[in-house]
Fold these 3 entries.
Entry 1:
Amino acid sequence: MKTIHKTILITGANSGLGKEAARQLAGLKETERIFLGCRNEAKAIAAKADLEQATGRSIFEIVLMDVSSVESVRSAVAGLDQPVDALIMNAGGMGGKAPGQLTSDGVTRMFAANVLGHVALLDELLKTKKLNDVAVFAGSEATRGVKKMGMKRPKLEAGSVEELATVIDGSFFGKKFDPMQAYGYIKYLGTLWMSALARKHHNLKFITMSPGNTSGTAVMDDLPFLMRGIFKKIMMPYIMPMMGIVHSVEKGAQRYVTAITDPSLKSGVFYGSKPNALTGPIMDQSTIFPQLNDHRIQDNAEAAILRFIR
């Protein structure tokens, strides 16, 4: 029997996976209100109109927030007039044209967009008792390495708070910030943080769910011009489908829906594709990368992240 959630907040909801997840969730008669967490007001208004037309329901409400800004998400939570049953932290990407550039919080733009703002968002929801049941963080198979994509598994020397902090501020990567390499490390820290929270809040569920390698999203728009062209014009439409390592945005978003509605999924677990796959059935990723279950590194990741929350 599926878990019922009446109110849901989705970040990055104006396009791609976030928007599609909102559409699918609106198809469940139990859903009463969906908050569309968006950075751009004009795009949010257009997405809301599209969703209302597609679903025939007027249950969507815009919540303006920039997940790369701690102050923005705090303000957004303060403006919520009711708690949410479920939170889907979908927003992220490659960090724009300067992913390794530091924000005012001292973290790379990539880390801010994928993790720091979501940490602040979830922290505020917990403090104000505005989360009733489940939080889902958008993970990535890059966290445990993807040979087919040339992504090596994140490798840490000590897994200490200090070392993890260097991933956050970008110094871990040296002078050349490679967004494809950094992405796996950053999603890794987000995944560890979620598992640490799960061990502290037994009345709630904290799940990391990879949407898989999904076509039709804006993630690759943040890559450098040449790399973006290769991925969008060659890899995504031709090479990846032949290799069986890309699926539709509908299937990617369905994983989010599964994360908040399937009661068999366990808190603190990272779910993603099988080994050497980026699509298909999901499984516990710690069976592929056991270090995900290391409580010491989980706690160190949380402590490292909180250093940058002001």
Entry 2:
Amino acid sequence: MDFHLSEDDLMIKETAREFAEKRLIPNALHYDEEDGAPRELFDEIAKLGYMGMMLPEQYGGLGLSVVSFCGALEEFCAASAGVGITLSVQNSLCNEIIHKFGSDFLKDKYLAKMAIGMIGSYCVTEPNAGTDVAAIATQAADKGDHYLINGTKTFVTNGGFAGIFIVFAATDTSVGNKGISCFAVDAATPGISVGAKEKKCGMRASDTREISFIDVKVPKENLIGELGAGFKMALTILNSGRIGVSFQAIGIARAALEESIKYSKVRKQFKQPIANFQAIQFKLAEMATMIDAGKLLAYRAATLKDEGKPFMREASMAKLFCSQMANKVVNEAVQIHGGYGYMKEYPVERYFRDARVTELYEGTTEAQKITIARDLLKD
């Protein structure tokens, strides 16, 4: 398979890197310590077009390719993975599900607003339904001219400042996953309760909450796609999300490598920089090789999506490899830094915590293996 980054792709990537170096890197530790980045930051990011990167220009988006988006996402995540995941959820999940499956009414109602800063939250996970999406207990009862939603969603990214929730709920409990539907729910709708920020190990710059829906009235026209098609849509869109998480993992790993190279050149032991020691050189070489391998897998998936070709297996392979790779790389980065790598004053400590969740959300490592194996063994 042949693909490359065009001049436009590289320009967008470089522009994102310049913004990240100026606005995110100096504040990344503060965002981590404060359990979230300020809403004003995302307003600034939206003004630059990053909240609607892949949306068509008719909806106020930039109309960029998946490859261009992923390059920019890597740069954001290298600076602050918690801020970067907001861009990933917005572009890969929330914008995409409305654009791909929503009616013209929903596209006109929401996409232009989302392109300029209305932030979306993707509400699938529940206390007793994670990887097993079919087990969701949230229900949407048909009340004639509207649906009434009741249930609780957990680990909702962007939950504290979302303007729209993409909610998956059961509309017919008698037919299993074929009875799950998807709705666009305005955050200001009465009956929505936003919980406190989750106290997380890592990715603390990302706003993560529990969202409860108690007799939330949703107009019939806010149904996304066909009734009962929610499960299939969720799996389809999660393939895109997995590409995003792959580049998030790449960004974290790349930042850890860059810090390790810099540190190894200035840290001296036995009267010389530790970069002179073969043990350190071997670590750096393996880290760089794993990152490049991850990029090839992830860009392959992104390119296939741009070309309109099937990319489910490739997205899962990229997510599987990149998430594991990131955890291995940041572990080595901490090792290279020694005791200092365990201290908050050095960013590798944050990378170490942030990387762990990449093996959990958008489908666990085990779920990716199941997806890949099933695709390999299908008739």
Entry 3:
Amino acid sequence: MTEKIADIGVFGGSGFYKLFDDMEERAVETPYGAPSDKIVIGTMAGKKVAFLPRHGASHQIPPHKINYRANLYAMKSLGVTRIISPCAAGSLQKNVAPGSFVVCDQFVDRTTGRIDTFYDGPIATHVSAADPYCPELRQLAIKAGRDAGITMHEKGTVVVIQGPRFSSKAESKWFSAQGWEVINMTQYPEAHLAHELELCVVNIALITDYDSGLAGDVEPVSHSEVVKVFGQNISKLQALLVKLIAEIKPERTACKCSETLSHARV
């Protein structure tokens, strides 16, 4: 399954379709079908990095149609052990302002019908989602963002909705009332599938808007505005990624992500 082409994988979200100028494109086949697009291999901070826009390079795949299993399997087949999963996201709390970044530590799944496991049998495999994101990568991401001069929120819960529609105001108010900070359409099952493959995964949510139920004077969110604000902040994300990737060590000794399956089977 594994061919050592890259150590680190980066997924691109809405408004984030390119990471390198000097690059090699690689088509990858998987048992789960085709990934969202060709994977681009390049060098960043002296390390080989694989980049894949999760919606496709032309944003042709809506969030509920992304082949998450193929995307994660393709990354692992290239030798990737760390996944950096930035995304455009809305804020559910007033203190989490557009333009700031949240390094989420929890998710809430509000999606329906998405294939969310690699393990359909014959061995029953029950992977814990108690701590879905890698603690080592989270701390490195927080530090990288602060070193880049970005307003960073050290933790937050992302509620993942099905899409492609945005939330009603009533739904948004409900999510805010639960105390959740971030809303997005792609973190589930992406993060959990990475966990199932014993990959380290970190989410970096770039806040593009206040969600529509947060306050009476907030305009309903639109995709065009999300992409616009994300584009205005893409240089900040790229600066963070360079600093983060530079600090990632080859060995995985500060987390237990590589031992996930040892606790998931009888």
